[in-house]
From TrEMBL, chain A:
Its main location: membrane. Keywords: Membrane, Transmembrane, Transmembrane helix. Residues 227-494 form the NADH:quinone oxidoreductase/Mrp antiporter transmembrane domain. This is NADH-quinone oxidoreductase subunit L. The chain crosses the membrane at residues 6-25, 120-140, 177-198, 210-228, 234-252, 264-289, 301-319, 340-361, 373-391, 398-416, 422-444, 464-487, 507-527, 564-582, 588-611, 687-708. It comes from [Actinomadura] parvosata subsp. kistnae.
Length: 709, 315, 143
């Protein structure tokens, strides 16, 4: 039992290593699959004469498919040539041009890739499932104990100590109440995402490495969760950042995706610098990096130390959890595949920041200025992000801003002094936001576009997704039976209590509570808007153009494949029922207010929608709509404040390098050439001149010898 | 010798004569290096050498003096005149006998003179020797040469032989490896007039038979010949190996040889540009292809005719 | 006889020879100047032989040898001059500048390279319209 945390961390890590190593292997397979995919093309144009599985599968010559595409007159050349660059989108071609002929998905003759994908899928899923079982085992008793408030001793052990010369780093992995709860969330969501990805990325040649990265991410997150030492935690923290970068940039062929990945990496790195120094301050003040010892020493620390440390930690939290100053990366991170958005950018990684605050909550609770700052940040973040979500047209960006908003809820709950409420909301949010993202992935998978203007009327085509996503939206809005209602109610209750308890300054507490209540209404509004625009109204299915690389694939099925539906359904259960797990204590007043507000927001949107089902209900924002859509111009502001000056500085450096440094080098070379050119004048080929020189030299030597001896 | 150095102010007759001769020598030497006429320079050289020979006589070196007259005045200067003649130097005034770095040369020369004269005067101010006639007579010198210096003397004869051969090799252009390959086409035409043009014979036979041999700038006859499929004689040299060609060659020479003899005289001026001597001469010893075989007959005679002036130059 | 007299005469002759070697343009004149220098040496040899009174007459014998060697040298030198004349049609030392560095290679190649680069680019569209693959290829070569 004490080794369970280690096993839970190691299993996905080994899976990641194995997956990455084996992902080198199936390159042949992917290439053959690319070869085999091509016949689809020809069959689509030739009216589906017969699927030439056998011939091409056995022919093994790449010429033949090329010929077929060439004769079919379709310029699918980029796809042909990108056999190495991944993503072979040929099925798109066939469906797009043949007017959505329904090629049965199972008949896709991707034997070679299927083999590699199947292997990668098993390598990814089995260890994650095993880790999930371990974490559930770990969490069985202490997890429930966390919410009931009874403390249980952590299980785990120390695997050695790294002597650094200063403070030693103890390699401790342990599961206390908080860790075990979050661990369950992480592994279960990761498992769901892994299963989901099998279907979602079926055609992606880089699926093996993708699944390996998810495994690595799971391992890193579990390391963060179970780490008993702050520096060990930091290791996992950074690996998560790396995985986030890798996975956001999964479809790096599109320049925008790789830019988004770089942006996410840089912005979170900015916060991580503060985080690392916060760890240092806290560790040196406590004389140890062990979490338990740090927390034990908190009462002895001076207020200044605590404020410094927690403020620095807050920078890392803001970066990782996408809180207000550093939140801009999260909407852009939606460039990654949707399961990644569900896993990293909704359920787990961004929750790591909240987790850290909850983990070190005694330290934060003792630093009141930090809590005030956190409250203000959270208040600004939740309302602003909710408004931004209301104006977005991209379904994933709606969910992304919703994530920012909900994370701000948790941060607000923490600021209000209730870590249990925040963590509870973290759990339920992890469940329903993962559910929402996976459902959105199914929708996008179906429609082939992220934009809600191209969706509509999907409730008949995607009944399962409709139901599950409705549950998710209900939880997001906080409609009573769903989990979100209870957790959000807990958070609001904590904020309400903060007004009187005095954990925060009055202004901050008031601001926080007001923003939270407003956000409830706006949340109801944007959730209703997204729900209505996606599933109701007229079907706006248009003849889709070639999808951008980076958007999902178009598949012609009534519903998403089973590997995608099963996780969705399984996630719907906790999203609906998780609220009853944590011994819910509902305060009728607050609950009534929040439900009322949510209904108000939803009702307003519904009314606007009823007026004109085609138009965007976001128009109720009026003149605020444009700023909301641009997320209040924060990106523009950053671009003006930081990006452009830095770019200008970089250009200046480049020019300096070119003119001054290289100029010096080139100038010295040129001057040497010039001088040598002058010397070269003497070497004009005239022998007599040479002899004159020699004789003059001899004479000089003779004179010198006479004079100086 | 150091004892009782006579005064410089009361020169003896020998000294006066020597100084006069020395003045003549130096003056004529100056004229040699400053005159504007090449032939005059050679003639002033004769005067200078003659004055020097007189100086040797005064210094009692009779044999050296006569050798000087014989070899220098008799042979070397004549050789120089031949050289002037062969290089078609203009007779009479020519303005450009001095090169650009005249000032520098004068400077260096004056400095040399100053240093040497200073050192010599400084070192040998007190050196004096009475002159006893007969010390440099032929008998004494001959005894010395053939007794003490006989080995260097013999070595010198070898040196002379080497110089002779070298001069021949350098000046004769029909010896394999002797003459450098022709760099330019321009200098060729006038060369026919000069005696050093034995080459054209090699080229000439190719001309009457196959005009294409002359036309392509391909210097090698082998390369040129493939362009002529109509001429069987020319097709054979296409294999550059002489052995292959010789198999087919034997019939051809008889046909072409009658035309060949006339060809040299007629065709030599225009063709001289195309074939470089190096290749033609390298081919010739093998005697392979029909064109060259005809060549084989003529060039030796011609070469003998041409070379005498240079051979005489050798020594 | 004061040895200074022949020594000074020979020094002057030698210097005149140096001047001739350095200043004369015609190769044959240069050869003459070399002869002058050799004769200066000869005069020195004879004079000092007389002064030293060598029983072996080494000075005078050496003079003889020098004369012989000078004759051989003139023969060879003239042969070289003639070969030179045959090849270059000139015996002016000024014109024999093969020892010099080839004059300014870089400025010669650079403009041509630039021209090669600049011309095909405007030419590209035209060639592509024509569909003449060969010219396009030739233009693309230096790129």
């Amino acid at each position: 039992m004490t080794t369970f945390p280690l096993l839970a961390v190691l299993l996905p890590f080994i899976a990641a290593c194995a997956g990455l190593l084996l992902s080198r292997l199936p390159h042949n397979n992917t290439r053959t699959s690319g070869r085999i995919d091509l016949p689809h093309d020809s069959t689509a144009t030739s009216g589906r004469t017969s699927l030439p599985h056998d011939s091409t599968a056995t022919s093994g010559r790449i010429d033949l498919p090329h010929d077929s595409t060439a004769t079919s007159g379709r310029t699918s050349l980029p796809h042909d040539s990108t056999a190495t660059s991944g993503r072979i989108d040929l099925p798109h071609d066939s469906t797009a041009t043949s007017g959505r002929t329904s090629l049965p998905r199972n008949s896709t003759p991707t034997y070679g890739r299927d083999k590699a994908h199947t292997r990668a899928a098993w390598i990814a899923i089995l260890p994650t499932a095993a880790a999930a079982i371990l974490t559930i085992w770990l969490a069985w008793k202490p997890g429930l104990a966390y919410f009931s408030g009874t403390a249980t001793p952590p299980t785990g052990q120390t695997y050695g100590t790294i002597v650094t010369g200063g403070l030693p780093i103890s390699l401790t992995l342990q599961a206390d109440a908080l860790s075990s709860v979050i661990g369950v969330l992480v592994t279960l969501v990761a498992l769901a995402v892994q299963v989901y990805s099998v279907g979602y990325l079926e055609d992606d040649p880089r699926y093996p490495s993708y699944s390996a990265f998810i495994s690595l991410f799971t391992s890193a997150m579990l390391l963060v969760v179970y780490a008993g030492d702050l520096l060990v935690l930091y290791v996992g923290w950074e690996i998560m950042g790396l995985c986030s970068y890798l996975l956001i940039g999964h479809w790096w062929e599109d320049r925008g995706n790789s830019r988004a990945a770089v942006k996410a990496f840089l912005v979170t790195r900015l916060g991580d610098v503060g985080f690392l120094f916060g760890i240092f301050v806290l560790g040196t003040a406590a004389g140890s990096f062990r979490v338990s010892e740090v927390l034990a020493r908190v009462p002895e620390m001076s207020a200044a130390t605590l404020v410094t440390a927690t403020m620095l930690l807050l920078a890392g939290v803001a970066g990782k959890s996408a809180q207000v100053p550093l939140h801009t990366w999260l909407p852009d991170a939606m460039a990654g595949p949707t399961p990644i958005s569900a896993l990293i950018h909704a359920a787990t990684m961004v929750a790591a920041g909240i987790f850290i605050v909850a983990r070190l909550f005694p330290a934060f609770a003792a630093a009141r200025p930090t809590l005030d700052v956190l409250a203000v940040i959270a208040a600004l973040g939740m309302l602003g992000a909710a408004l931004a979500a209301l104006a977005q047209d991209d379904l994933k960006r709606v969910l992304a801003y919703s994530t920012v908003s909900q994370l701000a809820y948790m941060a607000g709950g923490l600021a209000a002094g209730s870590d249990t409420a925040a963590v509870f909301h973290l759990l339920t949010h992890g469940a329903f936001k993962a559910l929402l993202f996976l459902c959105a992935g199914a929708v996008i998978h179906h429609v082939g576009s992220n934009l809600m203007t191209q969706m509509g009327g999907l409730r008949r085509e995607l009944p399962v997704t409709f139901v599950t996503m409705t549950i998710g939206f209900a939880a997001l809005m906080g409609i009573p039976p769903a989990s979100g209602f209870f957790s959000k109610d807990g958070v609001l209750l904590a904020m309400d209590g903060a007004l009187s308890s005095g954990g925060l300054t009055d202004a901050a507490a008031f601001f926080l509570y007001g923003c939270a209540l407003a956000t409830v209404a706006v949340t109801g509004a944007y959730a209703t808007r997204a729900w209505l625009r996606t599933f109701f109204g007229e079907a706006r299915a248009v003849a889709l153009p070639e999808p951008e690389p980076g958007t999902a694939h178009v598949v012609d099925v009534r519903e998403a494949p089973r590997t995608m539906l099963v996780p969705v359904i399984l996630l719907a259960a906790p999203a609906l029922l998780l609220g009853f797990a944590g011994e819910p204590h509902v305060e009728l007043g607050v609950a009534a207010v929040s439900v009322l507000l949510a209904a108000l927001g939803a009702g307003a949107v519904y009314a606007f929608w009823r007026l004109d089902p085609v138009a965007d209900p976001a128009r109720l924002l009026g003149p605020l709509r444009a700023p909301c859509e641009r997320a209040f111009y924060v990106d523009t502001l950053y671009a003006a404040l930081f990006v452009r000056p830095v770019l200008a500085l970089a250009r200046l450096v480049v020019r300096t390098d070119d003119v001054v440094v290289d100029g010096a080098v080139r100038g010295s070379g040129k001057s040497a050439r010039g001088l040598s050119g002058m010397l070269r004048l003497a070497q004009n080929g005239n022998v007599q001149l040479y002899v004159s020189g020699v004789l003059a030299g001899v004479l000089l030597i003779a004179v010198g010898a006479v004079v100086f001896t | 010798m150091t004892e009782a150095v006579p005064s410089y102010l009361s020169p003896t007759g020998q000294e006066i004569v020597f100084l006069l001769l020395g003045a003549v020598a130096v003056g004529s030497a100056l004229l040699v290096v400053t005159t504007r006429q090449l032939v005059h320079a050679a003639l002033w050289l004769v005067v200078c050498f003659g004055a020097l020979a007189g100086g040797y006589l005064v210094l009692t070196a009779e044999f050296v003096a006569w050798v000087q007259v014989l070899i220098y005045v008799g042979a070397v200067v004549v050789l120089m005149l031949f050289g002037i003649m062969l290089t078609r130097a203009p007779i009479g005034r020519s303005a450009d006998l001095d090169s650009g770095n005249r000032l520098l040369a004068a400077l260096v020369a004056v400095a040399t003179a100053a240093i040497l004269v200073t050192v010599v005067i400084d070192g040998f101010r007190t050196a004096y020797t009475p002159l006893t006639p007969g010390r440099g007579a032929a008998k004494e010198l001959g005894a010395s040469v053939f007794a003490t210096w006989v080995l260097p003397f013999e070595a010198l004869s070898v040196l002379l032989l080497a110089a002779l051969i070298g001069a021949i090799v350098l000046s004769r252009t029909d010896i394999p490896g002797g003459a450098p390959p022709e760099p330019d086409t321009a200098p060729r035409p006038p060369q026919n007039a000069s005696p050093a043009a034995p080459r054209p014979h090699n080229a000439s036979p190719a001309a009457p038979q196959a005009p294409q041999n002359a036309s392509p700038a391909g210097p090698r006859p082998h390369n040129a010949s493939p362009a002529a499929p109509q001429a069987p004689q020319n097709a054979s040299p296409a294999g550059p190996r002489p052995h292959n060609a010789s198999a087919t060659a034997p019939q051809a020479p008889q046909d072409t040889s009658p035309t060949a003899p006339q060809a040299p005289q007629n065709a030599s001026p225009p063709q001289s540009a195309s074939p470089p001597q190096s290749t033609s001469s390298s081919v010739r010893p093998n005697g392979t292809s029909p064109p060259e075989q005809t060549v084989d007959d003529t060039p030796p005679d011609r070469a003998v005719d041409d070379t005498p002036p240079e051979q005489s130059g050798g020594h | 006889m004061h040895i200074v007299y022949p020594a000074v005469v020979s020094a002057l002759l030698f210097s005149i020879g140096v001047y001739g070697v350095l200043a004369r343009r015609n190769t044959i004149l240069v050869l003459m100047s070399v002869e002058l220098m050799l004769n200066a040496v000869n005069l020195n040899l004879v004079a000092f032989d007389v002064w030293l009174g060598d029983r072996l007459h080494s000075g005078q014998v050496l003079t003889l040898f020098v004369i012989v060697i000078a004759a051989a040298e003139v023969g060879l030198g003239l042969a070289i001059v003639l070969a030179l004349f045959r090849n270059r049609r000139t015996v002016d030392i000024d014109h024999l500048r093969d020892l010099a560095e080839p004059p300014e290679e870089a400025p010669q190649t650079r403009p041509t390279r630039v021209r090669l680069q600049s011309t095909p680019e405007p030419a590209h569209p035209d060639h592509e319209h024509d569909g003449q693959g060969a010219t396009v290829k030739r233009g693309g070569g230096p790129l």
